[in-house]
Automatic annotation (TrEMBL):
Protein name, per record: Glycerophosphoryl diester phosphodiesterase membrane domain-containing protein
Keyword vocabulary terms for this entry: Membrane, Transmembrane, Transmembrane helix
Source organism: Hyphobacterium lacteum
Bilayer-crossing regions: 25-55, 75-100, 121-152, 172-199, 219-245
Keyword Membrane belongs to the record: yes
Length: 324
C-alpha cells in the first residue's frame, strides 16, 4: 500500500478537530496555564513592578530616591528575578507537554494536566537542541553579514564607481535573503520535533524525516495558522482594550481637562488619578478579569500553533511502513 499524501487541511485545523472532540480537556489545560501564568505575573508585579512604581513616585514627588532603600529594593529584585525566570520556563515546558499530549496522543493527565515527567524531560532536551540551532543560525547570519559587508565595502572603495556600489548592495541583499531562506527552511524542517518527541515518547530531535517531502505544505499550514491567529488576536485585543480603557478613565479625564483648559497636567494629580484607577474595586475586577481572559486565550494560541507540528508528526507516523 502506497504512502498517503500529506493532508494540508488536517494540519491546519488539527486543533479545532481536537477541540470538537474534547472541548473540556482544551479548556482545562488553558485554564491551568492561564492561572499559573497569572500567579507568576502577580509575583513579578509585587516585586519588580513595585520597584518601578516606587521609582515613578519618587520622580513625581521631586525628591531623589533614598540610596539605601533603592539598593535594598534592588537586592530583593535580584533574589526573586531568577526564580521568576525559572518558574516561567517550567510553566512553558509543562504547558507544552500538556498540549502535545492532548494533540498527538489524545491524552490528558487526570485532574492536574501539568506535570514534570518523562515527556517534559524529553521535551527539554529537544528544546535545547532547537535553541542550539537558533543560536548557531544567529551567529552564522552575523558572520555572513559582516564578511559580506566588509567585502562589499572594499570592492566599492576599490572600484570607486556607482556600478560597484550598486553591485555591492545587491550582493548584500542577496546574502540576507539567502540566510533568511536558510533559517526558514531549517525552522520548518525541525518544527515537528517537539510533537514527534511526545508522540514517540523519546527525544526525537531533530525529527528531520518527519517533514521530509512536506516543506511547502507544512510552511503553508503555518502561514495560514499565523494569519488566523492574527485575525483572532486583533478581534480579541479590541475587546480587552475596552476593559483597560474603562479602568483608566480617571487618568484620561484628567488629561482631557488639562487639554481643554490649556494648563499643563499636574504630575501629582495624574499619579493620584492613576492610583485611584488601579485601586478601585471596579477597576481591579475589570483589569484582573481582562488579564485572565487574555492569558486564557494566549494559552489557546499556543495550542493552535503547536497543533500544526502535532498533525505533521501524526501523519508521518501513519505513513511509515509497519515491520513484519
Amino acid at each position: 500500500m502506497g504512502a498517503q499524501p500529506f493532508d494540508f487541511g488536517k494540519a491546519t485545523f488539527h486543533f479545532f478537530n481536537v477541540f470538537g472532540r474534547k472541548p473540556a480537556a482544551v479548556i482545562w489545560i488553558a485554564l491551568w496555564q492561564a492561572m499559573l501564568n497569572a500567579g507568576l505575573m502577580y509575583l513579578a508585579f509585587v516585586t519588580i513592578g513595585d520597584f518601578y512604581i516606587w521609582i515613578l513616585g519618587e520622580a513625581f514627588s521631586g525628591t531623589g530616591p533614598d540610596e539605601a532603600e533603592m539598593f535594598n529594593r534592588m537586592g530583593s529584585i535580584m533574589s526573586v528575578g531568577p526564580l521568576i525566570s525559572i518558574g516561567g520556563m517550567l510553566i512553558a515546558l509543562m504547558a507544552q507537554g500538556a498540549w502535545l499530549r492532548l494533540l498527538v496522543r489524545d491524552e490528558m493527565a487526570p485532574l492536574i494536566p501539568f506535570r514534570l515527567a518523562g515527556d517534559e524531560l524529553h521535551l527539554f532536551a529537544t528544546n535545547v537542541g532547537l535553541l542550539g540551532i537558533a543560536i548557531g543560525l544567529y551567529f552564522l547570519f552575523a558572520l555572513v553579514l559582516v564578511f559580506t559587508g566588509v567585502a562589499v565595502g572594499l570592492a566599492a572603495a576599490g572600484g570607486g564607481s556607482s556600478n560597484a556600489g550598486l553591485a555591492g548592495g545587491l550582493t548584500f541583499a542577496i546574502a540576507v535573503l539567502v540566510m533568511l531562506g536558510l533559517a526558514l527552511f531549517i525552522g520548518v524542517r525541525v518544527s515537528a520535533a517537539p510533537a514527534a518527541t511526545v508522540l514517540e515518547r523519546r527525544i526525537a530531535f531533530p525529527a528531520w524525516s518527519v517533514t521530509k517531502g512536506k516543506f511547502w505544505p507544512v510552511l503553508g499550514a503555518y502561514i495560514l495558522v499565523a494569519v488566523m491567529l492574527m485575525v483572532l488576536g486583533g478581534a480579541f485585543m479590541m475587546v480587552v482594550n475596552f476593559a483597560f480603557l474603562g479602568a483608566l478613565m480617571p487618568v484620561f479625564q484628567e488629561l482631557f481637562l488639562a487639554a481643554q483648559t490649556g494648563i499643563e497636567p499636574n504630575p501629582e494629580a495624574l499619579l493620584g488619578a492613576l492610583e485611584e484607577a488601579v485601586t478601585s474595586t471596579g477597576a481591579q475586577i475589570s483589569l484582573v478579569s481582562a488579564g485572565l481572559v487574555m492569558l486564557f486565550f494566549r494559552s489557546v494560541y499556543d495550542a493552535i500553533w503547536h497543533s500544526v507540528g502535532a498533525s505533521v508528526a501524526i501523519q508521518s507516523q501513519a505513513t511509515q511502513p509497519v515491520s513484519e
